[in-house]
Each structure stands twice: as C-alpha cells, then as structure tokens.
C-alpha cells in the first residue's frame, strides 16, 4: 500500500471504529518504528501539511486572543470609554469611539499619529479618547505629567496643542524645554510645571496604568475600537477597516 494511503487507512480506522482506537503504547518496537518511518516519509513527501497545521494553530490562537480581548473590553468598558478624565477629541458625539493608549517617546505612536489624525478628520464621526500611558522611562513619564497637568490647568484645547507638540518633540523634556514649549503655544508654563506632580495628575496616570494592566496591555500604541483591541501600530487602511467592523457590530 502506498505510504499516504497507509496513513489514511490508519486514521480512517481510528475515526470509524472508536473501540479499536489507535494506541501507540500497544505497538511492538518494530511496529512503532515502522509507523514512525511512515509518518516521517509522508511529511517529507508532503511538507505543506506542516505549514497548514501551523497556520491552523495560529488562526485558532488569534481567534482565542480576539475573544479574550472582547471579554476584557466588555468588562472594562466604562473605564475605557468614559473614565471622566481622559482627553476626548474628534467628534464627541461620534457613533464610534477610538481609544488610544500612547507614550510620547514611542516611535510607533509617532508613526501612528498622522494616520490617527487623518482617520478622525476624514471620517468626521469618530470620538477619540487619549489614554496617557508612559512606559518607556523617565522622559515618557515627565512628558505625560506635563500633558496631563496642562489639561487640568488650562483645559482640553491647551492639552491638544501640547499633546501634538510632544508627539513631535525630540529633545529632553526638562523644565527649561517644557517651559519653552508651553511659551511657544501661548501658554503660561508656571502653573503647569507646578501641577506636574499634583495628586490629580498622579491619580489620572495611575488609574490608566491600572486599567492597562487589567486589559493586559504592555505596549504602545494599543487601540480599542468598538469591542476590538488592536495591539500595536496599524496603517490607516487597517484602522479604517476596524472602524467599519465596529460600525457593523
């Protein structure tokens, strides 16, 4: 019997007759060696089977993770979409909310910045929520403290200006540099700098960190669109696809 047919016969017998289920432990050493040789020969003759099996496993794992993310978003929906302190931009009355967990020193966040702006501007019906999630060291933390302090002291419009400026800022965010940045945006730096380590700023960032931990987020950017979580950078076309999927739910 040709090798593939021999293997097919073994598998067919196992499925069709459960009482005679294939049991390698009951095989003699010579039978086991012969069977292993047949399996190896079949796989060598048909290597695409291995690729198909790996692809099937990866697809199942992706589906499992997507379902897990859906559950995490559902359980934490209020904190994700309506925490009461995160900046809300775009169209506040939009039919779809896009949430971004971001870090000012994250290269992929900076890469996504223009795409996200284009997505919001071209769609016109997206509510955009920014989650300050500094995870890349002291410069990240200082930048987020400054941005959140700006929002608390000077309001959302000032925050958006600072947020956009920090996404392009490449220097070290020390007090002098931040004061100069604020001045360039017609903002008084003194009260913002004074509020950077206030309880309100620390609480906001701590609550976002706790939410990220519950959502098992350990990298930026991470987006939540509808019930879907997008972990990492995605080009504009992919983002639009996620938005369309969310609208279709």
Please specify the SSE layout and strand pairing:
Blueprint: H1 3-16, H2 29-45, H3 48-75, H4 77-81, E1 87-90, E2 96-102, H5 107-123, E3 126-132, H6 138-154, H7 156-168, H8 175-184, H9 189-195, H10 199-214, E4 222-225, E5 228-231, H11 236-248
Parallel strand pairs: 2-3
Antiparallel strand pairs: 1-3, 2-4, 4-5
In CATH's first tier, which class of the largest domain applies?
Alpha Beta
Output the radius of gyration. 27 Å
Question: Approximately how much helix is present in the residues?
Answer: 55-70%
Which structural class should the secondary elements be placed in? alpha+beta
Number of structural domains? 2
- Adjacency order of strands in the biggest sheet: 1-3-2-4-5
Tell me the distance between the termini.
52 Å
Offer a few descriptive terms.
249 residues; alpha+beta; Glutaredoxin; 2 domains; 5-stranded mixed beta sheet; 11 helices; disordered N terminus
Task: Give a structural overview.
The protein is α+β, with helices and mostly antiparallel strands and 249 residues long. It is built from eleven helices and five strands, in the order ααααββαβαααααββα. Strands 1-3-2-4-5 form a five-stranded mixed sheet, with helices on both faces. A hairpin with a 2-residue loop joins strand 4 and strand 5 (228-231). Helix 1 (3-16) crosses helix 2, helix 6 (138-154) crosses helix 9 and helix 6 crosses helix 10 (199-214). The longest helix is centred in the N-terminal third of the chain and has 28 residues, at 48-75. It is elongated. The two termini are 52 Å apart.
